[in-house]
Amino acid sequence: MDESLLSPRSTISQMSSVTTPRNTPYWTPVPTPLMRRHAQQQQLTQFDIKLIELDQVKKDALAHLKKYNALRTQFIEWFSANNKAFCVALQTVQLAVPDLVPRDIYTMNDFIKVLEMCRLLLSKKRWRLTSHEKLEEFYEFWTRLSELKAMGDKNVYERTCEFCESITRLREPQIKDKIDRLYAKLNKEYSNDFIFKEIHNERDNLFTYRMMQPAFLGLISYIPYLLKNATKVCYLVTKLHIEKE
After folding, report:
1. What segment(s) does the record annotate as region Disordered (predicted)?
2. Taking the model in full, what pTM does it have?
3. 80-105, pLDDT tens digit by residue?
């Protein structure tokens, strides 16, 4: 046997004789998600970018629409379970201090005056009111609606307007016009001073006819009425499309 084959020096010499071709990388780079995204963005046209932006606006509008629907469902369930107790609580306060609270409740401010008087009487511990917590629960729905509307103003309507101002053509511009009109109507009717005594005639609020006291129909219909119109704004945003010039 050739002893050179067993010699470590011979083996090292043979290994060192193997050379790496010039300009040949020692490893092949694996594209990362960031690299792929960057490469993709380099290929996108301005129209493609606007399509992506609109898709995100529509997704956010749909997500907010679901929040409105969830609140409306919760309100209807609450009403079905607490209709009688709510009416009793309202009437009790009105009968206890008739000169200090509104006799007719036509606005949210009227209701708030009754609620504040209820809190005042309870704080003095000289008066007991059955089901007074139902007044607080109703006001909590109003608070949650107010929070959702503020979010919708910023995250849905304002973003939609900013997007529409950044493009040149909508496929159906009348949809945006309808959004603007409906949003203006919603803003006008969403107010502590809005007189809501007639809105119980709305077809979508027929559940309110189970109300124990017809005098409170407008009050109990007001929150679902606003939720319905706010939902329409979100729905119309999801129907927007753009076209190339």
Report:
1. 1-24
2. 0.78
3. 899 889 988 999 999 989 999 999 99
